[in-house]
Amino acid sequence: MTGYVHHSGTSFTLFTHSNIFNSINNGGIYYDIDAKGGQSGCPVYRLEDPSRVVGIHKAYDPQKRLNFAAIITESVIEVLKLWA
Fold it and tell me: Model pTM?
């Protein structure tokens, strides 16, 4: 996962964090990767193929105690195309 973290004012720093996926289910990828405020929407990808984004970071799931991403499916791609 790579994204910009907001510090203060207009200060941002690009961070990359990595770890294995804990689980993939219900349209989500769950992982124990540190995420900070402002990283929602950043790409989630496999280290073996960083050119292929597999998810969009969403939030922290307090019940699972893991961060999670929405899996990029054909329907997600169609919505993204509408927004372009």
Answer: 0.78
